[in-house]
Every structure is written in structure tokens, then in C-alpha cells.
Amino acid sequence: MKKRAKAKRALKRLRTIAGILIRELRRELPQHCLFECYQQDFLLYERVLKQKTKDTPKIYSLHEPQVYCIAKGKDHKQFEYGSKASIASTAKGNLIVGVVSHEQNLHDSNTLPEILRHVEASRGKPAKQAVCDRGYRGKREVNGTQIILPGKALKKDSRYQKDKKRKQCRRRAAIEPIIGHLKSDYRMARNYLKGALGDHINLLLAAVAWNLKQWLLAIFWLFFLWRKLQVSRIL
Q1: Using one digit for the tens of pLDDT, what is the confidence trace for 104-114?
Q2: CA atoms 145, 150, 151, 157: torsion sign
């Protein structure tokens, strides 16, 4: 309790100092400069000073006001601060066919229309089925695309149908290591580009680098098999 009270007093003191600085700047700056050049900045500062703990939407960063808090629900990392991204890959391969960075903290099921439109634009045709995790519950069909979620098998399902659903949901788990590689190896975990547009560009560049690596690996293995076949023929 003592540490909490001490932190509360320190926060109150910081708010007081920030308020004094803002009022002093308003007095010292010329009126034309204040309203033409720095009006948006002062509005942002005053909004930060007035916001409470439970206010929504909150501002977490002065240089990136569009950043929001994302609840992860994991013990080691309960929250992340940034922008939510949707990633779609092919059913049989690991190529990324759709990426979208969302400027608002939407529920996962509400992000499906935008990512499916991006998939349709990149593939030239809409996707028939989309296999998602349980976080996307709430919608069974989006713009003609059937949404498949993991769940208990129906009593009327045959053995073939049960195995097919199980394989589809297992294949969905392949997107998790792709996301992990994009974050750790392709600089998606920390974005150095400015604003919401920078979030879109950073995500798109990471996906392009991933696809380029997959294509290069495919070409390498194709050349390796062709070379091995030529050697076997010579022998």
C-alpha cells in the first residue's frame, strides 16, 4: 500500500509539472504560431493529462497516438501495445496470400471481411473456406467464404468427415510458426516506421520477404533434384 500511495503521489506531481509547462507555453508562444503550428500537439497533451485509467480509447504513446493495447491472455505476456495484424496463408503451402494491419482494436471476427478482401485481391478469386481459431467465433460465413472453427464433431458426421475436419484444424496451426518467424526474423515485432501507414508498410515488407524466401527455397530444391537426376543419368 505504501508503494502504491508513493506512485500515486509521483503521478500527481508529474501531472502538475506537465500542466504548468503547457500553460507557460500557451502564454509565451505567439498566437498565430500556437493556433497554426502547434494546436494539434497541445490538444494531444491536454487529452493525455485529462485521461483516466479506465478511459477508452486511451493514448499510450505521444509519438505514436494510434497505438492501442491488445490483450493476449498469456501468463508471460498479458498485453501488447501496437496495432493488430491479420495474416492469411495457403491451405497446403506456407505462402502468405493476405496481410492487413488494423488501425482500430477490433474483435477478431470483425477483422475477417478486410483480410478476405485482401486475399481475393492477391489471388484473383475469393477463398471458399477459411480455417480460423476459436478467437474468431461469431461468424460462420463472410462474403461467401465459409468460416471453419475447431470444435466437437457432430453425431451425424461420418468417420471421413471427422478426419477431414481434424486435419483442417491441425493445418490451421501452421500459421503460428509463420507469425513467430515474421516477428523474430523479419522485424515485425518492432516497427520503426511512423504512423498507421508505417504499420501497413512494415507488415507488407515482412510478408514479401517471407514469400521470397519460400520461393528461393523451392527453386533451390528444384535445381538440386534436377542436378541429382542428371548425375544419376551420367552414372
Answers
A1: 888 888 889 99
A2: positive
